[in-house]
Design brief:
Layout: H1 25-30, E1 35-40, H2 41-54, E2 59-63, H3 65-69, H4 75-83, E3 87-90, H5 93-101, E4 108-110, H6 119-124, E5 128-131, H7 134-146, E6 151-158, E7 166-167, H8 171-179, E8 184-190, H9 202-220, E9 227-231, H10 233-238, E10 246-249, E11 271-276, E12 279-283, E13 288-289, E14 295-296, E15 301-306, E16 323-326, E17 329-332, E18 342-347, E19 356-363, E20 366-368, H11 370-377, H12 381-386, E21 394-397
Parallel strand pairs: 1-21, 2-3, 2-10, 3-4, 4-5, 5-6, 6-7, 6-8, 8-9, 9-10
Antiparallel strand pairs: 1-11, 11-19, 12-15, 13-14, 15-18, 16-17, 16-19, 19-20
The structure holds pyridoxal-5'-phosphate (PLP).
Pyridoxal-5'-phosphate binds at residues 63, 89, 111, 192, 232-234, 248-252, 258.
Length: 403
Amino acid sequence: MSGDIKEGSAALPSKWPGSGGLQSKSEVVERGHPVWAEIDLAAIRHNVGLLRAAAPGAEVVGVVKGYAYGHGNPASAVAMLEGGATRLGVARVAEALHLREAGIGAPIHVFTEPPPEAAGMMLALELVPTVYTPAFADALSDAAVAAKRVVPVHLKLDTGMHRVGVVADDVSDVVRRLRALPGIDIEGAWSHFAVADVIDHPATRKQLDLFMDLVEEIERGGSVLRYKHIANSAATLSMPESHFDLVRCGVASFGLLPGRDFAGTDLRPALALKARVNMVKRLPAGEALSYGLTYELEHTSGVVTVPAGYADGYDRRLSGTADVLINGARHRVSGSVCMDQFLVDVGRAEVEVGATATLIGADGGDRITAEELADHVGTINYEITTRVPSRVPRLYLNEGPRG
Ligand SMILES: Cc1ncc(COP(=O)(O)O)c(C=O)c1O
């Protein structure tokens, strides 16, 4: 299957459904959503263009698993393809099904083996299966033979991260067994870095060396590997010798830094999380706020209710630590984040009901980043965006030609 994006080809749908078809902020509010995510599709196109330029000899696989790291599919996938990705990558067959149902025809890699029972579905959707166990390879081959097809597969090699994949000692044996199966063809081999987010980490070099040795061993055995791939966003930006034929980019496509070492890269954050202030009151000094009454007002203050909470992916550990932007000014979350709401002591600032509170994103000259929230929570930026659940509508901005 070619990764070309051509007018009239099945690689991209001519029209894809947005998140409930929401077109504007007023529509979001009219439908009663107090909190929403704005996804800047132009930022995704820009970021993918930058990654593509960083790996000129390779095709970019836009990694859109986890609902495109929370940014939403199929819109994010389409933006990636418009930005220059020629392939997509997901973790689950169901994620690929969602993209196919939206009319996306580009090659879609599935990074883990599903249960053998799903082999037929993978074939029907023309996915690019990852294979690392003979049991799944058998099922896939049987399904392909029944359909009178030979399915190209990519062999996952475990070079050190030890999640899934064939360990070095087993590679020759597994490849021999796979080559004997009539319904599959080993088209590619790949692996995944564990610490590429730290530039020049010795473990990354070790993984790359082992990957190259294993690829050589497979090719010496007679297989022709059209696609070798190991680079994620971090390696795409920092390790040209790891690019090979495909680079698989997720986090940086969304404008999130792949690690602290990448500060200063021209990536544009694509996701903003915003809420509409729904109550403002003035309370006297000594009053305490929210569950546990953990925050006490020092002065008579304006207290703003923001209708977003941990059910919107706004972690409870942001209680008393994170800032939000209201009318371009920073204010600290005051007291406990609840399931659907939290409170902000805005002191003497004038805030009206209906004002926008920016939980992630820019307002005025300031910006709250996913990295900043991740530091408060003790996690990574990936998790902050990926945890924004489906009850939060996505409002897609700057649609491309296919939008
Ligand atoms: C197999 C595989 N390839 C590529 C990626 C993309 O990595 P990143 O988001 O760091 O670019 C992931 C994401 O974790 C992955 O699981």
